[in-house]
């Protein structure tokens, strides 16, 4: 079901980015080179980013190897069979898969690896791809609140909150659930006409290498258990990625290529850290404080989350989080409100999150046309609803 045939030779890396990575690096270098950020402060800033980058690389490699083992293909084909030919039921199963993938393997994995599999599935079953494509990108963002590993912003917030993964889940589960429920409800309302009818059940998918498939599936399960058990997220990701890589080294060494290393994403993150830290040292915090307000009441948190969503859609969710983190002023409720804004809010502009940019690239590669105007309009419909529901759930939980 994957658009690329497994026997067609090495695959092009799907973690490629538009030139934004080069712009990010150049801007970060200028921030240091022009003296906006002293070299010692830049080193400290990158030191804070180091654990995040280690996790990013490890979880990306794990996800890529899982994809090469057929993990996502098999999951999608199983969903098509479980839905028994009902399009609406298949859609709901894709929602579940996208949510679980986002929660366990991060939003970028959902956008980059799950999206082409789902689009290929739609083409083979004769289904309209737009509802399924929108489900992957919306849930890649709105389902990324639950675990520290679900979003890089969560990892950064975890450094400030000093919560174990289990404690993090205890604080975020209600908001995360509200965000997913609202997202699914809006998707069903917008695409109900395209989700009617039935499709012909696909044949069973043969697993090319069962040993690699089950090793990859086991690595994902163990990764989730390690995270929930309180193991450092970077250590857990490295251990599971390394185990899977060893299995590939034994059985399919050709898949261990430089192309699967997410160096562009690493450079983007480094550049953004430097740019935002430089801006914070030159008055950005004061400006954001006046916009985001203070206090921890419902209206205060809603205002802060709205500021986070606005910042994410203006410049991207990672710099928006980094800029607003000082405005939270050490309050866990306010920091979680920032997360709600920057995680669930970047659904209006196509550059609101790296995951959305990567998703758009995969849609274009799959010959699925997405109107940016339509994307923005539907995002305007969803974003206020999901933020309001998530903040309400956070306050009530």
Task: Spell out the key features of this protein.
mainly alpha; 397 residues; globular; single chain
Give a description of the structure.
The protein contains 16 helices and no strands. Helix 2 crosses helix 11 (263-292), helix 4 runs parallel beside helix 6 (129-142) and helix 9 (210-228) packs antiparallel against helix 10 (233-251). The protein has one domain (27-396). It is 73% helix and 0% strand. It is globular and about 60 Å long. By secondary structure, the chain is mostly helical.
In short:
By secondary structure, the protein is mainly α.
Topology:
Elements: H1 20-33, H2 39-68, H3 71-82, H4 87-105, H5 107-125, H6 129-142, H7 152-161, H8 165-191, H9 210-228, H10 233-251, H11 263-292, H12 298-315, H13 317-324, H14 332-344, H15 354-365, H16 372-396
Helix pairs in contact: 1-11, 2-10, 2-11, 3-4, 3-5, 4-5, 4-6, 5-6, 5-15, 6-8, 6-15, 7-14, 8-16, 9-10, 11-13, 12-13, 12-14, 12-16, 13-14, 14-16
Shape: globular
Q: Termini distance? A: 41 Å
- The helix count comes to 16
Low-confidence stretches: 1-13
Query: How much helical structure, as a percent, in the residues?
Result: over 70%
The radius of gyration over CA amounts to: 20 Å
H/E series, N to C?
Answer: HHHHHHHHHHHHHHHH
Query: Which percent range describes the beta-strand content?
Result: under 5%
Largest sheet properties: none
Computed structural class: mainly alpha
Give the oligomeric state: single chain
What is the domain tally? 1
Mean pLDDT: 88
Q: Total number of β-strand segments?
A: 0
